[in-house]
Amino acid sequence: MTNDQGQTVRDYFGLRLGNHVRLLVPWECSPEVMVLSRREIYPIPGMGDACLGVYSHQIVRANGHSPLLWVVDLADWLSDLMGFQPPVLSQTEELTVVVITDNSKDGEMRPKPQLLGLVVSGVVGKVSLSPEEVEPLPPKAKPVLAPYCTGWARIDGGKMAAILNLPALWAATAIVH
């Protein structure tokens, strides 16, 4: 895709965690935003704190079944993966969930796309960035962020946003395999 100046751009979907953290996921992951009540999510015993449970997604497949959607608190999950202090989980009844699809093109044959619901504080929406607007991670951030982020950019009025490496996140958890 190109912008008005003829530059090649890539589309992302912006997410907010709390008041200060902005993240971007590639638009190719087919983000869908939904609001769920905590009562609609069924907890699964033995899962980590970041995994809130499963939700029966509204999509009905050709076989007549609705896939279960794993719902994960993204802030808590990233804290676990990166070794940060876990955030205080919001106990609000209504949750903003961004459903992403694993549309990996790594040659692996999968019977159906994998879905994951990420609980976020809010959404920024579609963000188009040229390659010049995407920066490599700062050296101080690389040890912690490099496995799960591919770079960063300024969005939403100049705020920094990390670009999530979705294949690394999919690989980091057993619940999506």
UniProtKB/TrEMBL annotation:
UniProt-listed Pfam families: CheW
InterPro entries with a match to the protein in the record: CheW-like_dom_sf, CheW-lke_dom
Span of domain CheW-like: 9-175
Superkingdom of this protein's organism: Bacteria
Biological process (GO), any one: signal transduction
Protein name per Swiss-Prot or TrEMBL: CheW-like domain-containing protein
Protein species of origin: Planktothricoides sp. SpSt-374
Lineage, broadest ranks: Bacteria, Bacillati, Cyanobacteriota, Cyanophyceae, Oscillatoriophycideae
